[in-house]
Specification:
- The protein is of the alpha+beta class and 121 residues long.
- The chain has two domains: 54 residues, no CATH class; 62 residues, no CATH class.
- Helices cover 21% and strands 13% of the residues.
- It contains three helices and four strands.
- The protein has a two-stranded antiparallel ribbon. A two-stranded antiparallel ribbon has the order 3-4.
- It starts with a strand and ends in a 23-residue tail after the last helix.
């Protein structure tokens, strides 16, 4: 599918609708764009109440509250980004990685080493 040259309905400038963009639009059932990238961004910005939406213009995230805990495995003092409830073990970073890091695969799945993964149940 070759690139297409389209004309923006807002500013009248020609813009390229690339083959990759055409494929993207087609897979999602979108119609061809009527506006160039710049006019689409301007229109989106107006709809969303003005102001730039770049990462640079966003206010910084608030500092994440960290909680002091003792690792359930090795006893080392550490900090975690959640308040432990006391009903489950809490690990330091090293022990968390050793025990599976919360990303254990389910039954029938191979682990990164190509071994049969253990069931979580």
């Amino acid at each position: 599918m070759p690139d297409k040259t389209l004309t923006c309905s807002d500013c009248g400038q020609e813009f390229t609708f690339t083959a990759e963009e055409q494929e993207f639009y087609a897979t999602r059932g979108f119609t061809e764009p009527k506006r160039c990238r710049s006019c689409r961004a301007t229109r989106r910005n107006e709809r969303e109440g003005g102001g730039s939406t770049t990462v640079m213009d966003r206010p910084p995230r608030p500092e994440r509250e960290m909680f002091d805990v003792t690792c359930s495995n090795c006893g080392q003092a550490t900090k975690v980004p959640f308040q432990p409830r006391g009903d489950r073990p809490v690990y330091c970073r090293d022990c968390f990685e050793r025990v599976g890091g919360g990303n254990r695969p389910s039954t029938g799945v191979m682990d990164r080493g190509g071994n049969q993964a253990r069931s979580r149940y």
